[in-house]
């Protein structure tokens, strides 16, 4: 896409939503759907909701499926799970990401062979999303393989999400970056109000945690941790929108929200 549409971090389960990105070129439009990473086993209702999102995306009427994997030999269980998940009625591209970490063709051959033994890929790509290595090769192959169709979206549209969604994603991204252990996974971010004014965007958000002890960690001594979080998330929002912003964050306890179906619905992880 050439633009950041969601928060990223080295920690698992950073992506919690199905995110749509619209790539517009001079004469082409391609719609990409990113999903939460696959979890073979769910330990709580939130993780089960993430599994459902991945499964639904796999069942959608896609023209191409891209399986993005780490540059390491997978376990037999991982290969079996992906073989069940990937769509059978469209071409499958296997994209080995972080390929810059590999030290030679032999390592790459082992990784590719392990995946393609069970997951029948139409084409295989080795890329580095971080460094941009051969991403253009993958993008070109996708555009060449897509069938002709009328454009679904306006040419200047980047996603089907509103700015308040991306603001919450950038706050969560900084939570995953700044905090360790259980804190990032115990946090849900809700944008209470997003207001555009002639001078700057005004954003009010609540961070929901599960326990009082987690609230104290997020805020930090004398509020320093929350101040750092606010500054970094505000900068990310400004970089995304291209406008000045003021971000205000509050931290509240919603006891065991990951196990509470009403909370999961309220925070947008469940339908209905």
Summarize the helices and strands and which ones pair or pack.
Layout: E1 19-24, E2 29-34, H1 45-59, E3 65-69, H2 76-85, E4 92-96, H3 105-116, E5 123-126, H4 135-145, H5 163-178, E6 188-196, E7 201-209, H6 212-219, H7 224-241, E8 245-253, H8 261-266
Parallel strand pairs: 3-4, 4-5, 7-8
Antiparallel strand pairs: 1-2, 6-7
How would you describe what is shown here?
The chain is α/β, with parallel strands linked by helices and about 270 residues long. The chain has two domains: about 130 residues, Rossmann fold; about 100 residues, 2-Layer Sandwich (GMP Synthetase, Chain A, domain 3), CATH 3.30.300. Helices cover about 35% and strands about 20% of the residues. The strands form three sheets. Strands 3-4-5 form a three-stranded parallel sheet, with helices on one face. Strands 6-7-8 form a three-stranded mixed sheet. The longest helix is centred in the last third of the chain and has 18 residues. The model has no long low-confidence stretch (mean pLDDT about 90).
Short note summarizing the structure:
This protein has 272 residues and is α/β, with parallel strands linked by helices.
**Structural class by helix and strand composition:** alpha/beta
Residue share in β-strands: 15-25%
Q: How do the strands of the widest beta sheet line up side by side?
A: 3-4-5
Specify the CATH class of the largest domain: Alpha Beta
């Amino acid at each position: 896409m050439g633009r950041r549409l969601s928060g990223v971090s080295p920690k698992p389960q950073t992506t919690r939503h199905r995110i749509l990105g619209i790539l517009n070129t001079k004469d082409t439009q391609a719609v990409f759907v990113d999903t939460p990473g696959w979890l073979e086993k769910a330990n709580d209702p939130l993780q089960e909701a993430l599994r459902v999102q991945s499964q639904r995306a796999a069942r959608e009427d896609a023209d191409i499926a891209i399986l993005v994997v780490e540059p390491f030999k997978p376990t037999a269980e991982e290969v079996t799970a992906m073989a069940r998940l990937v769509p059978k009625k469209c071409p499958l591209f296997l994209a080995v990401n972080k390929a810059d970490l590999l030290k030679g063709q032999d390592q790459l051959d082992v990784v590719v062979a392990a995946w393609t033994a069970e997951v029948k890929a139409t084409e295989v790509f080795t890329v580095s999303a971080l460094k941009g290595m051969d991403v253009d090769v993958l993008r070109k192959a996708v555009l060449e393989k897509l069938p002709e169709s009328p454009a679904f979206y306006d040419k200047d549209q980047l996603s089907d999400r509103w700015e308040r969604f991306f603001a919450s994603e950038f706050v969560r991204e900084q939570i995953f970056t700044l905090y360790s252990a259980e804190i990032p996974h115990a946090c849900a971010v809700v944008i209470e109000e997003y207001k555009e004014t002639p001078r700057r965007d005004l954003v009010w958000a609540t961070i929901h945690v599960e326990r009082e002890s987690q609230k104290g960690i997020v805020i930090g001594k004398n509020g320093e941790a929350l101040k750092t979080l606010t500054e970094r998330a505000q900068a990310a929002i400004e970089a995304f929108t291209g406008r000045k912003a003021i971000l205000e964050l509050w931290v509240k306890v919603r006891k065991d929200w990951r196990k509470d179906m009403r909370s999961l619905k309220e925070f947008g992880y469940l339908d209905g």
